[in-house]
Amino acid sequence: MNQEIQHYLLKFKTELGLLFFSFLTFITPIWGMVGLVAFSVFLDTCAGVYIARKFNNYQSDKLFNLVVKTFFYMTTILLAFLIDTYIFDKKLANIGYLSSKTVTMFWIYIECKSIDEKSQKLGNKPFHVVLTALIKRIKAWKSDLNEIKKSE
Q: Is the CB of residue 51 less than 8 Å from the CB of residue 122?
């Protein structure tokens, strides 16, 4: 009887492993998107913990929201991937996995905006102000470089 149970457990374990690896193979095209969203959630969490520690209002029970948020983000990316695969036949407007990419970029934008807001709590300038100033400096540097080339 004991060997029969072990046989069924081994068979179940093997079939479960095959099912898991089949699922991983199926979602291979969106691994990069999932990784980017996971990384942005990680950065946002690190920024949040840093800000909370700096202002002495850290509460570890709020970290559970990280699990819910990550699960929600990954589920929506997976659903967009299923829509891309089975409804749009992997291409929409001649762009592969457009729905998945759109959902991924939306979540990354939200996380970047959250990081920017946390950075502003520390007294930093908003990201778009810093980026605009950087572009103006690059344009000025480029025009100065062009003037030097013309004078030579």
A: yes
